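Blackboard transcription, Thursday session:
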Amino acid sequence: MEVARTRAELREAADRLRASGSSVGLVPTMGALHRGHLSLVEKAVANGDAALVSIFVNPLQFGDAGDLAAYPRDEEADLAACEKAGVAAVFAPSVAEMYPKGAPDTVVRPGPLADELEGAARPGHFTGVATVVTKLFSLAGRCRAYFGEKDYQQLVIVRRLVADLDLAVSIVGCPLVREPDGLAMSSRNRRLEGADRESARGLFRALTAGKQLIMAGERSARAVESAMSEVLSHDTPRPDYSSVRDPERLARLEVVDRPVRLLVAAGVGPVRLIDNLAVCPP
Ligand code: AMP
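(Written on the board underneath:)
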């Protein structure tokens, strides 16, 4: 497995893979890899792609310097996990390598969806995501790129980015991987201990309550949101949004008369957690 540290090395690695007849499967990550990340790699390998994993904690998408500093990092374990998973190449650049001129003057600003939900709580977050993802696509060249439904709003925004800018990338969405008790796997879970770990289950409980209500016949999106919000307020210390959205564009809905995505977010202990669930009304 090759480890590319510079942008030039990444371009060369991707070109070489294509020249040898492989299709490239890019898996962008911020490291501290877990089974959720590795499910993306497995999907790329299953599709016959040479998996190219990027590991970069992108400062541009963090509004809070404390959150950036505390973000878990474990490159040694990440490289071992990639090797074991059959990854062809890892791109693990420094911040100075990715942004040699400091914070870029030119950024990619997604549309209005970037100001809602996670974007409302984290202003500028999706501009940081869209900018780094566009750089990675530019460096990797023609490829499939794998994104998890764990970050559902990010997936919707990245799909739109690729369509709007005609990028030579085909986006593959991958299912959310959970812990046995329902908690969505996340690198940030490493920072949860004791009572916080228990509270963190509240996000999936809230989604489950919303789903049960819809399956029992509730069709008012507001009623479903209230029910999720009640569970989130009861179970988590800093509840944020509980929202019922259409799965394609994440538009708000009044009536649950088609498949929907339920989305929740809450602060628990030192971290902010997000989760979501697809529901198909009977
Ligand atoms: P991150 O390192 O958190 O930026 O995540 C990198 C990629 O892995 C993103 O596309 C995430 O959506 C995806 N991912 C993270 N956690 C999970 C999970 N539990 N299940 C599926 N995909 C995930």
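Lecturer's comment: Strands lie at 2-4, 23-29, 49-55, 89-91, 143-148, 169-174, 238-245, 260-268, 271-279.
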